[in-house]
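Q: Fold this one first, please.
A: Sequence and structure below.
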Amino acid sequence: MELFSPTVHRGSDSESGALTPGQGAVDADWDLTLVDEAHHGRKGTNLYDLLTDLRKDTTSMYVLTATPMQLEITELYDLLRLCELPEGWNDRENFETYFDVQQDLPELLDEIAGSDSKTVEVLLPGLSSKWNVEPYEGMLTLRTWAGMIQAFVRKHDDVADRVEEAIDETGLSLSERRRLKRVLGVGRLGARDWEDRFSQLSGESLRFLLELGSQTTPVQSRVFRNTRETLRKFAETGRLDQRVPRREIEVREVELGDAEPLYDRVETYISDVYNRSKQLLEGKEQTAVGFVMTTYRQRLTSSLHAIEQSLQRRRENLKSELRDVSGISDSDLRTGALADREEVLDREYDVSVDEIGATGDAGERIRQYELSELEDFIAQLYDVPEDPKLEQLVQDLQTLSGLARDTVIIFTQYTDTLDAIKNKVCLSHPAVGTYSGRGGEIYEEDTGEWRGTSKERVKREFTDPNGDLSVLICTDSASEGLNLQTCDAMINYDLPWNPMRVEQRIGRIDRIGQVNDDVLIWNYVYADTVEEDIYDRLRERINLFEQAVGPLRPILEGLEGDVERVAMGESDQDSEDIANTAESRAAEAAELSRRVGLAEDGKETTEAEIIESSKLDGWTTAHPDIELVGYPDRRFEPMVTPDVVKRLFTQSQVLRDQGWRFEMLDRQLTDDEDAPYKKLYRMSVPDDANPPVPTDPPEDTVQAMYTDDDEVLISFDPKVLEWYPSVVIPLPQQELFEYLLDVLRQNQRGEDIGELVRFDGWLSESGIEIEVNESGQSDPLVSMYASSESKQRLSLDVSVLNEKMATETIQRWLTPFE
């Protein structure tokens, strides 16, 4: 994980540009902005534009990503540009040029005889010739590169001091050392006339600059690199008190046995219909039927039950009526992963893959051909032998139990496969549940039936050490958003053609804080299939799934198309070719990371070395933004607690008079869900109110299960969100809180609390200053609102101070900091 250091917007009235208390940021609406998955903000994306605008409105910005760079250096620039780069670095073309020179110049100098003793001016024709540019262009490139090193050195005083010492320790002549210092802007004379001095530098000095240039980049000063290995070292030295697990990957090659003839026949059907559609159809219809067959080919690798159910539905649709694809955009049929395209068709067009067909004479010929193919082996479909993967699964669950790995998550791509798994597993492991796009299910051993419930409850029962579930069967809808550090093992019942989807699954249990030192990952594949061969070779070549992917992410995401083309007979490549290409791309990505300084050498072993290597170069003190956060000697105690807010709203006669009701959930109502009823309230909303709350919550959430149309399920305990994220928590900064508070303000009974006045306080050279802020535009150290009348109460617990008391309070807060 890479965390890029902050962009800082300096105060406009400071000559030095440094932030000082009370000075504030320029046009900043936010103190801190965190951007996760920031690698999606490459140039040309909407996120890139949003982050560009957001820089103007935030004092400090951190961007986080596991893949700061994919296969282009400029992708790294797209993120670093947000981090207030030194002069010269904030240019996309210069950024790329810098690392090109760092890469090419050493080899070019080695090719020129006696280069160390020759000056840049003398070396220039030879260097320019090898770069295939004119000498003036070569000099411009070299000066751009050297100027960027100089800009970094002069930006950071401690770096400048180190560089000056390093120059003095070289064996260069006195005059050469002076020229080098002038080029870098260190020493008494600064960088005056440095371009002329640069032309007279020796090749040996260029080598010094190259060595220095690997350390004087924004990567060193603005990127925190926290890899798994770094965190493990912190854990080993006691700096991290949570486990950082390792992976134990095993591949279960499942023999098809008696099911092999059916598997081969289905594969032939898919291939024949696919090829016939290419011959008879054109355009979107050819794409549509090809998409159907490709999807079936992947379902075949999932389970025999999945393809059986798919083809039975397909047969019925072929005999009745297929859906026309004229209203579906071509891009939705072609673009994205297969699973994503399926989801788009279902969500946007209400069309399932099994319904898609072609029209016209050619479409009718394809329909009849496909139906005849299915009829030819339909008897086999209705007599499918038990999937050998199921028997393997039952054995493996018993094996895992013997290893004290009882909490197991099982992943599959398809709900048809999930159904086959759940009906088999419940016979030997009744503490089982499911989690899919259909919602949650829990098996009831007493009745032998599956009962629908909320996903929220399924998650809680599985992750809670005292929960009722030890086996969870999921589709890929659970591969995002679930954190399962308490899970002992994972079984991938099928492997999607996109390896990143498998990696996302593994990421649910391979997390910091895992209860096990090692996480067990067992992957199922049918033996002697294309998928088995490809995944086996990828594991050999690039250690697929052995560790968090990091730089491999873009490579893995690009593999789905390669695997699909091989599986469908559309490529001359074989599994060896795919593995070779992936290995080559992985080596290229690793080399690129090394070039820009993102790679770690892993040499640090002691605690002091680890801490030192984790520092950002060029910062000798705390970041100026961080220095302004909080109080030096005591923690901030909130004035408004969740309990205060609960009483403010639930006991308010003002809200009751307006038609608002807060009713604690009935215990009997939550028996099936086993929800924390004492912490949940049904809030009744008046007819004329329009609060900012969900209006159509998913059916499988407690928000939908326990409320009527005019009700919202709320809680005043933030911990409830861990189990029930659909519940609304009306606390400060949440929209419902602001809405209800506004209702109170507008309908407050009794004495008028008067006009609300904002008081601001800060420290100046003359001491504490406090004044009324009428514009709301300043950025004080402390501010609070007061009533122009005497002290009034909004409720039993919440008071509005008068102006005198507000002034005294601010004075008391600021006195310790004078």
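Q: Good. Now the second chain.
A: Here it is, same layout.
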Amino acid sequence: MSPAPTPGLTPDVVTQDAGPTGLAALRLAARLALRDLRGGIGGFRIVLLCLALGVAAIGAVGGLRAMIQDGIADQQRTLLGGDLAIDSSDPLPDALSRFVTAHGGRIAHVLRMRSMLYAPHDVAADSQAGPGGRMLVEIEAVDGAYPLVGAVASTPSRPPGQALFADTDPPGVLAEPIVIDRLGLKPGDLLRIGSARFRLAGTLTHSPDNAGGVVLAPTVMMDRRALDAAGLLQVGALANRSLRIALDGPDMGRSARAAELADAIARHFPDQGWRIRGVADAAPGLTRTIDQVARFMSLTGLTALLLGGLGVSAGVASWLEGRGRTIAVLRCLGAPARLISLTFGLQIMGLCGIGIAAGMAAGLLLPSVGAHALSGLLPVAPTRTVAVRPVLLAGLFGALVAAFSAILPLVRAAATPPASLFHDQGRRRGLDRAGRIRTGAALAACAILLGLLAEAMTPGHLFVAGFVGVALAAAGALALVGLGLRRVVGRMVRHMGTERGVLRLGLALFARPGAPTARLVVALGAGLAGMATIVLVEGAIMAQLRDQLPRQAPSFYFVDIQPDDLDRFDRVARAQPSVSEIRQLPSMRTRIVAIDGVPAERVPATPQTQWALRGDHGLTLSATPPPGTQLAAGAWWPADYDGPPLLSLDSGLAAGWGVKIGSVVRLNVLGRSIDFRVANLRTVAWRSLQLNFAFVVSPGLLSHAPHTFVATVMTSGRPDQDAAVLAAVTDALPGVTGIRVADVLAELGTLVGRLAVALAAAASVVLASGGLVLAATLAAGWRQRVATAATLRALGAGAGQIRAIWLVEFIVLGLAAGLCAAGLGTLIAWLVTRGVLHMPWTGAWTDLALTLSGTLVAMIGSGMLFCRWALRAAGRNRR
């Protein structure tokens, strides 16, 4: 007696054209697929959710990144303050300004330095800045030509020249809102910066060349003439000078003209140690931060989508198993395996397309929501144009993942003989050699395309393609572990006595022929490995930002101490009862010009040390090793050394630059390039926040050069006593700037908190994807669970015994998957931390254990709940 065909699929559909080829086969397969879908999509909803979640995550991250980068590109000239910017810690010569104007450039001078701002005494009592009403600010001193590009926004709204009125007594300043709020100020209030008086002219709401980033102090803008008249800029003070250059004329060819001018400046003023930036380098810190965050979030989206691929595989297998009767009817009527594959391939492709389309729709909408949420945190406004390319790439990536996940279940279903489909206990026939070759080639092609597409999604970052490769290799390793474990448990069962009935039956179900052990280990192990990776990477990041902070950091840094004021500073500080230790070292600014004759910009440095080849750095000179010095190589120079300049360099930077003992490092100090021979390398504990310098030079040549002193002060740490120390020092020496380390660490703690929220959001995406994989995996074995429960019930097993049998199976499965996930997650997290984020590795083992344990308990609980439903279904079938 033939089985009844599935409604909607009548025999005449196939018998009229049993072996069509080409376009006819495609039309027939499409008709069969559509008729079969009349019964609804049922359990395929989980597959749709898996794909939609992963595609939406990748598309949204890529779209938001593109919108922000386009916003930066549109405002690069404004962020730079012109077409070129020349930065230096030393005064720029007038000849440079004359040279630029002679070549058709308009110029503006900008100087930035930090100082202490003092509020009126009658306001300070109610302010949030502590006793004395003072806080650290960053002064931005501008001339009358500023800004060359863009506009300064202030409240009340006035041009900078009118708001700052440098010719009046006292001159005016504009302060950012945080200064006004903390000190309780209002327009017209008198302020003191250093020893000079100023009047608050209004609130600085926006400056065009502010690229954002982490700053230690809010900005106060003043006229450059007022800064010079007040005497705030002392010899050796820490200050950054910038000459902004704007070129008039059409936008067409402006970048080329700016590049030609930059080359002319470099040729006319060689070996000056200046940093010349173009619009492409307008906001390198902001661009780098966005790239790093987007890189991590992209990895999270890829993890979610690859995990979703496992859910797709399980869901497709369950879907095809539910269509066993339909496949059997078609095979009995003479339908070839090719037609079966084409029919259900079109069906699966169409359904997966719905999930991918839903994810793409979300990927188009979410970036605008994210851009609106970040509008107050970014110094530039993201473009409102929706980025389509990242969403299209995400959709293509989802299609490849779906194809990779569906190929094997589809081929197995098409190759299964009708007899085994009509009898659940029948064994499925394996693929022949040609079928295995074709299937393997298809899977390899999909894997290669996935890697190439991953590289296209983030050009220049092979780590994404490598991550895909590692993920696929991890899935293969989990499958091998599952197969091996099934064989080992099968041998154990054969040697167990019948008296261990529940335990033996639970292990037998785990190792029975045809059991989906490997698939379950892959699904659960991959989900847990993804969670383990996120937890460990998050733990490494948080350890660097929070857990590695020193317990004995100094309480204060005091900078810009003039040599003539050093004794007075020491007396005033030591007069405070809470001060327990003071350390002082001379300080200069330097810039790296060349290493062993190779210009700094061409040194093949490691990614971790490239930053140190750019910008200014602190330099000190010492005849003897500073306290706490740990030499890694070489020897310190004699205390009475008076020969050619020698250099003691941080060993970490030396390793990244290929510098050894005897190498020659050319440094620009006070506008002069000097060659230093490396005498020794030091291990510097930067995380201690103690007084450390990457560059320590021998006395002699620089002993009489203008410089200031920097000092660290250790106190009891009580806020009221720290306020008294800061007040005593800055009142006695108005030109000295004090930085309370606890305040800096508090700001860092705020940033860490925001980062923790972002990482938690990323982990939630992976967790949701893992939950969908678990649901799909359990749903794939629904019919088999019901049949097993019915069989055990027929043999006299009670409901409690059946639950115990399944509990044994889930515990063994969970332990196997958990151990594999811990190992794989640790390996992948180590690779990401060291190779992608370039951070030291720190294992968050407690968090990992708690996460995996909690996830496994939830998995086992969900599995037992699922089995309870299967028991009820088996009971209904018996009745």
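Q: Anything worth noting on the second one?
A: Residues 654 and 660 are 7 Å apart (CA to CA).
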